[in-house]
Amino acid sequence: MHTNNVQILIDYWPILLPVVLLEFGLMIAAVVHVLRHPNYRFGNKLLWLVIVVVFQIIGPVVYFVFGRGESDQ
């Protein structure tokens, strides 16, 4: 990495850290939900796992808005 790029990362670290933590937390919550629940509005378990992991911030949001099925409990 170029020295200038490293300095930019150091300067923006306080902003990037919460975004990265939010991204991983949301992705983990969505993956756990996909693995525990058998019902989905659209698609299947494999499709939603790929969407959640590949499209990191957008994928979990799309899953919780459009893909999450009604629970049986």
Keywords:
mainly alpha; 74% helix; 73 residues; single chain; 3 helices
Q: Short summary of the structure?
A:
It is found in: Cell membrane. This protein is mainly α and 73 residues long. The protein has one domain (5-67).
What does this structure look like?
The protein has 73 residues and is mainly α. The chain has one domain. It has three helices and no strands. It has helices at 3-36, 45-54, 58-67. The longest helix is centred in the first third of the chain and has 34 residues, at 3-36. The protein is elongated. One of its GO terms (cellular component) is plasma membrane. Keywords: Cell membrane, Membrane, Transmembrane, Transmembrane helix. It is a multi-pass membrane protein. The chain crosses the membrane at residues 12-34, 46-66. This is Negative regulatory protein YxlE.
Low-confidence stretches: none
Which percent band covers the strand fraction?
under 5%
Task: Provide the helix percentage.
Answer: over 70%
Total number of helical segments? 3
H/E element order: HHH
DSSP E strands, number: 0
Estimate nothing, just give the exact number of structural domains: 1
Topology:
Layout: H1 3-36, H2 45-54, H3 58-67
